Amino acid sequence: MRDPNVPDFVYDYVNLASPLMGAQAVLASDEFFAAKERVLQDEPAVFKPDVFDDNGKWMDGWETRRRRNGGNDWLLIRLGVPGVVKGVDIDTSHFTGNYPPAAQIEAIFSEETPDPNGRWRPLVRTTALNPSSHHYVPVGDLDPVNWLKLSIYPDGGVARLRVYGVPNRDWTDEERRGEIELSAAKHGGRIIAYNDAHYGNVMALLSEGRGRTMGDGWETRRRREPGNDWIIVALAAPGVVDRIELDTARFKGNFPDSCSIQAARVEQGAQQSLITQSMFWPELLAPQKLEADAIHGFGAEAIARLGPISHVRLNIFPDGGVSRLRLFGKLA
């Protein structure tokens, strides 16, 4: 269910600044009270009233010391996958007497670490901030970027920065000829929609490695009505799928009984449009039984020859948890 107070770009695009996509907080003018890396974490910010460290109150975000010599603080972020930004959320959750009164975001495309004092182009012009609030700002810039500069005026703390947009990756000749993990977040794969994600971290479904805990994956609530649960994934680029891996790592008493995958090549559209279309996509993988805490591999013999596809819909029956979904193949 969409929150009417949240703009469409939050639902229709991927967070380019997610660590799951390789984004990194590289350099900050200051991070005395709270480390710069926290501002990119996928989990919502939390407040721990009784937790302090050597420098003072522990805060879940990036927080600088009180500035006494003029100027302002800034943070450089490198995106793991370049992209065209459609909107941002500057989140000051739990920062009340220590939030910045204003912030600005600039951007650049550079193969090397850019000079913080060099030439940047405005992405989000100076915007007034409020305590403990989400600040959603649409972006109309059409050029791909891979570096962001978040400036706060003059100092203070930001809990999370979300940067929603469309991945824009240049593939090498070697990648075009060989096998690619088409669904991987690090390549630009992204989750478009799902009917439920009550537990865990749904974005981990497309991340690297096996799930470390039961919270490191996509898990739905216990279904008490007819039907099944599902999730829609946009591949990093259209391609022909040769093999599929579905991992139920750590899911033992709550893994799905079975799964199937539908797929199609479609243009990126609004979330609701894709949800409706996906109900009628042909099967890429017919229903398959699943096991607890196991990697399930499906080769060419189990995969329908649909040609190049761009989106898949994973159906699980009736509910449960999946740690990772990986689709391998060749770029179209």
TrEMBL record:
It comes from the Bacteria. Pathway: Nitrogen metabolism; (S)-allantoin degradation; (S)-ureidoglycolate from allantoate (aminidohydrolase route): step 1/1. It catalyses: allantoate + H2O = (S)-ureidoglycolate + urea. It is an enzyme of class 3 (hydrolase). Signal peptide: none annotated. Its EC number is 3.5.3.4. Pfam families: Allantoicase. Residues 22-166, 188-331 form the Allantoicase domain. InterPro entries: Allantoicase, Allantoicase_dom, Galactose-bd-like_sf. One of its GO terms (molecular function) is allantoicase activity. Gene3D superfamilies: Galactose-binding domain-like (2.60.120.260). Keywords: Hydrolase, Purine metabolism. Belongs to the allantoicase family. This is Probable allantoicase. The gene is alc.
